[in-house]
Structures are given as C-alpha cells and as structure tokens.
Amino acid sequence: MIKHLSLYITCVVFTGRVLAQETIYPAAAQQKTIVLTHATIHVGNGQVIENGSIAFVNGKITAVGAEVPSSADAQVIDVQGQHIYPGIIAPASDVGLTEVESVRATNDYEEVGELNPSVRALIAYNTDSKVINTLRVNGILLAQVTPAGDLLSGSSSVVQLDAWNWEDAAYKADDGQHFFMPQLLPPSNPFRGPQPPANDREKEAYEKIESVRAFFREAKAYIQEGKHTETNLKFEALRKLFSKEQKLYIHCNIVKEMLLAVDFAKEFGFEVVIVGGSDAYMIPDILKQNNIAVILAQPHSLPTMQDDDVDQPYKTAAQLQKAGVLFCISNEGFWQQRNLMFEAGTASAYGMSKEEALSAITLNTAKILGIDKTTGSLEPGKDANIAVSTGDILDMRSNNITHAFIQGREVSLDNKHKQLYERYKYKYGLK
C-alpha cells in the first residue's frame, strides 16, 4: 500500500511539473533596482555599447552605458559576455486570437460581415494562449493583436506578452483600423479550383474597394455633423481615424494596390501604413513622399510576381532602408512569430547591417505603432522591455534567451515545448 502511494505521489508531482503550463504565470511588479552588467548592449537605434550595463527601477530604464552607478540594495545580474537587446515587437499578428487553426472553437480573429470598424481585437485577446510563452523565449515581448476580415476588420491593439487578462495586457489600445484590400492579382494557387475570368475578378475587387471609399465618405459626413438623430456605431468607431489618433493599416502587396492606398491617404488625410508591401521596393519614392510606412510581411517567402528575382523578398528590406522609407518586418500568423528575429537576420545578410535589421523589429516597429516614446530602444525613461541572449538574437544557431523583462518584471521563459522536451527526455531515460 505504501509502495503504491509513493508511486502515486511521484506520478502526480512529475505530471504536474511537466504538463501544467498553468503554473507559468505573470511576474509580479519590479520591487528593487535591477542592474545588468558586463554585456554588449544593442540599444536598438544603431548604437552598440561594449562591456556595458543597464539599470532599471519601477519598470523604467534609468541608465545605460559603460559606467552605471549601482545602489547597495540593487539586484546586480552579471551577464558577462552576453548580449542585451530591446524586446522584439511583433506587428500585424493574431497571436492570442487563435490557438489551433483547424479547430474553429479556438479561432476568434474574424467577425461576420465586411465592414466592422467597431470590432476590437483587444477584448478577444487570450492571455492564456500556449503560443505566447513560445514567443517570449525568443525575445518577443510585445505584439500588435490584429483582427482579420474581408474588408474593414476592426481595430488592433498593442499588448505586452505577460498578463493575467486583456486589460492588464493592453500596452496601447486601439492603435489603428485595418483594411484588407481585395487582391488585384489573380490567385496563383492551382489547388483553388476553377476561378472566374481575370477581368471579372478585378472588376469585383475594384467595386469592393470603392464601397470602402464610399463608406469612409459617409463616415466623414456623419462625424462632421453636430448632432445625430441616431447613433451609428460603425461610423463612431472611425472618429479617431479621422482625427489621426489612429492609423489606417491597409493590407496589400502589388504596386497598383499600394497606389490605391496612397489615394486613400490623400483623399481622407489618414495616416496610412501598408501591411504586406511585397512590391514596395518598386515605388519607394512615392511611399516616402507621402509619409507612408510599410510593415513588410514575411521575407521568408516566394516572390509575389513570377518574373521577380527569387531572392527579392530577402532584398526588399535593404532597398527600403536605402530609400529612407520607414518600415519594419513582420511574420504572418501567430505561432510563426517566434521566427521574426530570424527573418530580420536574413535581411541583414542581404544588404542591411545587423543593427539596422535589429531596428526593423524593435525601434522602427515602435515608431510605426506609435509607441516609440515608451519602448523600442534601450534608452533612459523608456520601459524596461529587455531580452538577454548568450549569442546573436538574429541568428537561429546562437539565439539563446537567458533573461527577459517586460516593464521591469523578469518573465518566465518556460513553455509547453520545453516541458514536453523534458517529459520525453525522462521517458526515454535521457535525463
């Protein structure tokens, strides 16, 4: 009996340790000054500090440099020979809005209908997603949670990835509206079956684009009115867009789609950001002249056009950098976000410097999302969103995060993947 009871207790303890990701919970607020010392500090704005230190208290960075004073009660962490980076920011992601793509009940990223500006992705954000912890372990500490849809999908929000609920997670609520422009390029997937003639598809796409334009015109007229006999919730949701408190993120790729995005910016005075922009390298001057930023989607992909260079997606970032276009790098989906830093690493091998590539997933992203005053680089006064790696964070061979801090709180780097790794090491006697 005692033997069986002992075996039962052992199984319960072991199972609880390796299976219960529920024991991974948000970190408590920073209690004392923390100083990270003897590291190579990559500030995020192009500056690199050798053998430097960084201090932060109450979630804010207080000092960065070769000589950083430390109080007697400070917690000093010697990260000798390691690298300190700003926390990486994942834009245009549906992390926390979906868990298993093939299980409909776990997908909450899209609403019924085509015009849904009143939808808020933030309130659907699931802080208990098992995917979130797999992002933090690679240094991704913030994400722009973005709704999907046919045309106007609703508003996105920036969240920090260590929270009890969506209210705690909110870093910048409702930062912008999202317009998924219908494709003006025939689908290239041969498995989609018979398609309508190209002219009919393009005509239908233009009609939908014009319907969105008409919707914005009606919304503008509604907002300019002093009083209303009835409240239109969809028009009300666009007030901050017209007042430039929000940006309009237009998801499109080819040149004629991006030129239409420029037209939207000119007609309505919106602050427009292009999401996707695979052909942005063809019109960098136009984008720069109109102050349109680009969230460059998934460089690890095939070219959009058949006659493009096969490595064009790798080169586009450097071409935008050279032209002076404000851009950042994103990755599609949710679990794929864990590879975001490696996408930037590839860009650094195709014309960008390592520090420019780092800015493309930190400070540039913060500028585009409107949070660069609080994060994106390691500067005094900004939030202590920090990742520490034993090697180059952009290199999948040496990326190894040892510490991560969100607003000064040291967050757990455990996740389901690590737990399963330990589980099967135990099963096969490899521990």
**What would you say the CATH architecture of one domain is?**
Alpha-Beta Barrel
Q: What do we call the CATH topology of one domain? A: TIM Barrel
Q: What shape does the CA trace take?
A: globular
Helix content: 25-40%
CATH class of one domain: Alpha Beta
Q: Considering the protein shown, what is the CATH homologous superfamily of one domain?
A: Metal-dependent hydrolases
Strand percentage lies at 15-25%
Elements, N to C (H/E): HEEEEEEHEEHEHHHEHEHEHEHHHEEEH
The number of helical runs is 13
| First-last Cα distance | 29 Å
Mean pLDDT: 90
Extract low-pLDDT stretches: 1-20
What's the main sheet like?
8 strands, mixed
Question: How many beta-strand runs?
Answer: 16
Radius of gyration, in Å, reads 23 Å
Q: Supply the helix-strand structural class.
A: alpha/beta
Protein name: Imidazolonepropionase
InterPro entries: Amidohydro-rel, Metal-dep_hydrolase_composite, Metal_Hydrolase, Metallo-dep_Hydrolase
GO molecular function: hydrolase activity, acting on carbon-nitrogen (but not peptide) bonds
Pfam family, one: Amidohydro_1
Tell me what the structure shows:
The protein has 431 residues and is of the alpha/beta class. The chain has a domain at 88-375: TIM Barrel (Alpha-Beta Barrel), CATH 3.20.20. It has 13 helices and 16 strands. Strands 1, 2, 3, 4, 5, 14, 15 and 16 form an 8-stranded mixed sheet that branches. Strands 6-7-8-9-10-11-12-13 form an 8-stranded mixed sheet, with helices on both faces. Helix 9 crosses helix 10. It is globular, with a radius of gyration of 23 Å. Mean pLDDT is 90; it is low at 1-20.
